[in-house]
Amino acid sequence: MTTLQTVDTHDDASYAASVARSDTIHELIQDPGARGRENLRVLTGDRPTGPLHIGHLFATLQSRVAMQDNGIDTFILVADYQVITDRDRPGDLRSATLGQLADYLAAGIDPERSTIFAHSAVPAIGQLMLPFLSLVTDGELRRNPTVKDELAATDGRPLSGLLLTYPVHQAADILSVHGTVVPVGRDQLPHVEQTRAIARRFNQRYAGGEEYFRAPDALLTDVPVLPGLDGRKMSTSRGNGIALAMSADETATRIRKARTDSERFITYDPDRRPEISSMLRTAGLFTGEPPEAIADRIGDGGAARLKEVLTAAVNDGLAAHRKRRAELIAEPAYLEDVLHQGNGRAAELADRTLADVQQRLGMHY
User: Fold this and answer.
1) Domain 248-329 carries which CATH code?
2) pLDDT for res 224
3) What is the 3-state secondary structure (H, E, C) of 11-57?
4) Which of 168, 175, 129, 119 shows the shortest CA–CA distance to 146?
5) Taking the complete model, does pTM exceed 0.85, yes or no?
């Protein structure tokens, strides 16, 4: 019997190795003629828990478009089952999913070059979880930092089995389509490391040492998290974010009501003035200017002038996205067709993977 080894994702050597692999992948993506580039398949995605906001645009959507445009096989998961890992009710998943899909397409994701699919439409992913669960220990799952963080955010709610096995579910997402690259920030590395461990353990225990599953690599993102208007993490529930679906007037109202401080002269000082600095940084992302330069230009114009500058930057920057999004939302049949096509491709790959796994387990009757 194979002994399960503890997955250590926090030591310096492990992180350094992840960085080295990530750097190699970045080079492959940028070099159209690089050897081995054809083996890259990206798996990424979002939970449809609410409207996507400008943080998603800069942190993930733009990078997905860039990978697609660089010819990288890209799979984007609408992780609808994962919505109920930490909540009792899923909400209006259909509307949330179609809205998320509209934002994907409006941002430039091309369904002819990227595969967008819904978790619930690929039953083989759930079936793959069963053998994968045999390859992890209870202790590993409970030590996973993301599981601990998500549990802490539920205000004392009991740990559900789905939340506990969240990392295994993500491993099934990735390995079902033989994803080899997973874009993440450093805080999400434990999930990728758990998936790598599951792939190696399956190969050793059930595939006779054959590399059936390639251990996927993390593609570490260097885009910092965009804070909300109040300097805290951007979140729709906190009312401190700007959703991509907002109208220009709604955006102006949200920014106008945002809290600032009592100092009139505008400066960029993230530690001492988080709200002001967040607004400057957001404006800079849309205009391409350093936040310090925007602060210098506004000077003693005060918070009112800053909010005017930010409103103009956001509304100008999102005008094309919002126009295209509105057109897409008006065509739900088209959005559903895009999703059905993506579901079909993902299901075909996952069904083949499940059949291969069952063959190696001796479950071919």
Assistant:
1) 1.10.240.10
2) 58
3) CHHHHHHHHHHHHHHHHHHHCCCCCCHHHCEEEEEECCCCCCEHHHH
4) 168
5) yes
